[in-house]
Amino acid sequence: MSDSSQNASSVQVKALVITCTLKASPAASSSELLGSQMATFLTENGVACQSVRAVDHLILPGVEKDMGEGDEWPALRQQVLDSDILVFVTPTWLGQHSSVAQRVLERLDAELSETDADGRPILFDKVAVTAVVGNEDGAHHITAVLFQALNDVGFTVPAQGSVYWNGEAMHTTDYKDLEQTPEKVSASIKTSLTNALHLAKRLQDSKYPVSA
């Protein structure tokens, strides 16, 4: 391994968990709970992890990186740029991702026109995983939408890079009301984030090439 690769491997991986619940802090939130469980796993595996609840910030509508006075997205955007892994968490409402999640995706759209010093899209070499929670169906559909959007703007999605929990149809039990984390959810957290961490380290070692 070259000296540059050894130096890259020694750099700590950073992660950002963006939770797109509709509930402002400090209200209890199933999405926040799942996001915190994923943050804990990352921290326990040596990742420097930060978490934000998007609804606590004024994210103005638009598709620019800065929408002007009062817009709090630029600070959140910098946290995205400073991270190697993005964990994108959303609840399910009417079978869809939340309006807060859509707002975040729309603001990330601005990165399509942003490039690094080598002329590559600025979000190349970053990894994204998703988490979806709700007491109704829709997790697979939402995951597909999120994967497409996040990949479009430059993120790489690892193998089995999603976690979800669907409550029993026509019931009102929330994820946060469960007595313990379901085994399948715990297994999905481990798989998705282990693969994300592996991929993030590989991309630190060897970036995507500059297109001809």
Automatic annotation (TrEMBL):
Residue ranges of domain NADPH-dependent FMN reductase-like in the record: 24-166
Family matches, as InterPro entries: Flavoprotein-like_sf, FMN_Rdtase-like_dom
Question: The organism sits in which domain of life?
Answer: Bacteria
Q: What is this protein called?
A: NAD(P)H-dependent oxidoreductase
Provide the species name: Microbacterium profundi
